[in-house]
Each structure stands twice: as structure tokens, then as C-alpha cells.
């Protein structure tokens, strides 16, 4: 990973002069979020500013038919929507969603233990998923005052979610249900997602907890005591005032859809969105 300009976990914290560099850890364990169930990781500066701008350009210039307009926000799905929890269009993701994100996801070992004599093939986060890699990307646009209700991602996906944030920061809230099954309205944790960062949730966080985003213009009460990943932020000084004024944030959510239509792989163009 040295050729990508990565720094080790023990390296210096990113500064204004180094923020455009990739900051890949030696393993995901080095970026595990403290205090959360073990399988939650945060990597600041997972992509560079130049890569971020290139992806944003592709998102913004996508054909209009690619966007689905919801009540308060809009989204894109690649390579296609799901029908009855099945990925109909089984073609590979476009290059601009594959590179550099997927290549880096598959290059970072889950932990520091040696799983193979071939160090070029580490046991990555998707190593045990059905397709060995993400095959679906959901792109969400979150203007200020826009959020999403607490929810679980469901059974259509392998229980690993990798989210790359672009353009702006916001807080993701994590919730759990009460003993009677009702949702506890108070989040158990908050995770602050910076531009160019990667958040990975899996295991217990995927199956037992809900996640959501408050529809607000400003995230408040930000501190080491209230933000679970504060120690892993790329630039915590940007939030020393305790607030984050939201701007338009784009999220790329990478997952492996469990069921893929064989018919769709043969007749993909029939189901293709532009």
C-alpha cells in the first residue's frame, strides 16, 4: 500500500498540508471505533481531495433518469435497483465507483494476524461475502435539514456496510430497541463522518442496531465525550467549537447483494438505467 501514499496508524495526524493524501491503516483493527461493538471502523482521508472531486463530478453529471427523487432528498442506485431483494442488473460497477474505493477496501486486512502466506491477498472485509466484493452502490444526497429515519438495512445484503462521505460532514446516529421492541429515541452513539472518510459497520451493529440521520442544519454538542470516533477524526480541530454547520453531503454506500438474477446478467440492458 506504500505506492498509494498511505501512512501507518502510528503516523502523524493529517494537517492542512497533508489532508489530500490517502491515509490507509495497516489493518482495520487500527481504525476500530472505541466503545462500539468490535466490528465498526472509521478511516479518515480514505480518498484524496482530487478523487473526491472526480467522483462528485460523475455523481452530479449522471443522467437525470439515474436520480430517484424522494420527498426531501434524492438518490442513485448502481448498477440497478433491487427487485424483491434481488440485484437484477449483474454487471460490474462502473470504473469511477470501482476505483479507487473498491480496490482499497479489498487491500486492507481485517486485522494484523497472518491468514495467508500470500501477503498480496489479505483477509479483507468482504472475504467471506458471497461475491467477495461489493456489487451494489447506493448514492444519497443530504442537503442541510435533510436526514433519514432510524432503520436497518435488511436481509438483502451481506452484513457489511461501507460508506464513503463526500463534500461535507454530518453525524450518524446509532440506536437500539428497548426490551418491549420499541425504538429508544435517544441514540446510543454518534459517529461524525468527515468528507473523504470511510465508515464500516458489520456484525452486531448491522443486525441489532438501527442507524439514522437527524434532519437538522447544524450538528451540536460535538466533543470527545459525545462523538464515538473523535479520536479517529482526520481534523478534530474543525469541530472544537462543538458544532458542525452542514452543507450538501453525498454518501456512497457499498454492499454485497446476496441474490443476483441470472436472467438479469444475460438481459441486463433491458433493466438498465442510463
UniProtKB/TrEMBL annotation:
GO molecular function annotation: dioxygenase activity; metal ion binding
Subcellular location: Nucleus
SUPFAM superfamilies: Clavaminate synthase-like
Biased composition (Basic and acidic residues): 112-126
Region (Disordered): 1-23, 112-132
InterPro entries with a match to the protein in the record: AlkB-like (IPR027450), AlkB-like_sf (IPR037151), ALKBH6 (IPR032862), Oxoglu/Fe-dep_dioxygenase_dom (IPR005123)
GO cellular component, one term: nucleus
Record domain Fe2OG dioxygenase: where: 133-258
Keyword tags: Dioxygenase, Iron, Metal-binding, Nucleus, Oxidoreductase
Family, similarity comment: Belongs to the alkB family.
Name this polypeptide is given: Fe2OG dioxygenase domain-containing protein
Organism in which the protein naturally occurs: Chaetomium thermophilum (strain DSM 1495 / CBS 144.50 / IMI 039719) (Thermochaetoides thermophila)
Record lineage: Eukaryota, Fungi, Dikarya, Ascomycota, Pezizomycotina
